[in-house]
Specification:
- With 267 residues, this protein is mainly alpha-helical.
- It has a single domain, classed as Methane Monooxygenase Hydroxylase, Chain G, domain 1 (Up-down Bundle), CATH 1.20.58.
- 65% of the residues lie in helices and 0% in strands.
- It contains 14 helices and no strands.
- α3 runs antiparallel to α4 and α10 packs across α14.
- The chain is globular, with a radius of gyration of 21 Å.
- It starts with 7 loop residues before the first helix and ends with a helix.
Length: 267
């Protein structure tokens, strides 16, 4: 027999959900900090679901479905970026009241954000080390590293549509061809949706740095231990502060060849 929801609260599991905001101190703003970051993780969960749908849609040549899913994620990313002012209503001194209890916890350890990066094609396997011997989390990221990415699906789609995709140079040429007639080729809207997604995450990274600078200035972040693990594996680090590490991520993009094609586009 199928279970039916008894009420709004029952359907959303609100009693269980609202019990998950457990603070470690009596600091007033700690609840604020927890709620904002838990909401981030919920949006990441939805984004992963939609990115998987986009990948499946591209694989089946259901391009309208893929574009719809990508546009939803783009809107989610805009919402995430717009959430930083809410977090910034917490003043630096308010954060210091409970910050020392967070270490070594850090947003750098967000498994779902790493999964988003891996699923889109930005697969830096050094991040796997952040999860140590945590079998479930490490296993999830390793599975993401082994499965086809959104970029893999896009390249395969280029080939199915008889566009050259045997090398990076060939892909750039094919994308330039699409950019010259984006409304006449079925891959035009998909290509633009991927660029929108990438640009959205780039804006998120930049806004994230601004928020961190406002909170802690240039002092090391709570994730310094995690940064150390990345540095030990060859990750470039400029300086010792949390903001310094974040600045090294600003150049990251999911689909660099799509951006290169825009450079190569001529009339």
């Amino acid at each position: 027999m199928k279970r039916l929801a008894k009420s709004y609260s029952d359907y959303l599991r609100l009693p269980e959900l609202l019990r998950l905001q457990r603070t470690l101190t009596s600091a007033r703003d700690e609840l604020h900090f927890i709620v904002v970051h838990q909401v981030f993780e919920l949006w990441f969960k939805l984004s992963l679901n939609e990115l998987e749908a986009a990948r499946a849609g591209i694989g089946k040549d259901d391009l309208p479905r893929a574009v719809h899913a990508l546009r939803r994620v783009h809107e989610v990313v805009k919402l995430l970026t717009a959430s930083f002012p809410v977090l910034e209503t917490m003043r630096p001194y308010d954060f210091l009241e409970f910050r020392n209890r967070l270490q070594p916890a850090s947003g750098l350890q967000s498994l779902q954000f790493r999964e988003i990066e891996f699923l889109c094609g930005l697969q830096d396997r050094r991040y796997v080390a952040l999860f140590g011997r945590n079998g479930e989390s490490r296993g999830r990221l390793e599975r993401r590293a082994a499965e086809p990415t959104l970029w893999d699906a896009y390249v395969a789609c280029l080939r199915r549509h008889r566009l050259l995709a045997g090398s990076d140079r060939a892909i750039v040429k094919s994308v330039v061809k699409l950019l010259r007639s984006p409304d006449r080729h079925p891959l035009g809207p998909l290509t633009e949706a991927l660029v929108d997604l990438d640009q959205g995450f780039s804006s998120w990274r930049l806004r994230h740095i601004s928020m961190v600078m406002r909170m802690i200035g240039s002092r090391p972040g709570t994730g310094q231990q995690s940064v150390g693990k990345l540095v030990a594996r060859g990750y470039e680090q400029m300086g010792e502060g949390g903001v310094d590490y974040l600045k090294t991520t600003l150049g990251k993009v999911f689909f660099p060849l799509l951006w290169e094609a825009r450079t190569m586009l001529t009339r």
